[in-house]
Amino acid sequence: MPPVAAMCPGIFLIMPQILTESEVSTFHTEGFHIAVPVMSTADARAYRDRLEQFEARWPESVHMLDQGASLLCPWIDECSC
What we know:
Layout: H1 4-7, H2 11-18, H3 21-30, H4 41-57, H5 65-72
């Protein structure tokens, strides 16, 4: 089983629904896959706008986003996993 299985339980149940069998096989062999779209351009723009608003309002707290992003900006959980 590839190391990613330990980091992301259930990933192999989700991937076959999105990727072809060949792509899943390549992932198992190579340990990575090329990028796949996960959200619309409009959603990406909306999240970026929210992040930039946070950065403008609290510039001194931007460094805290490295480890506590979802505590400072709960909406970040909407776009993760």
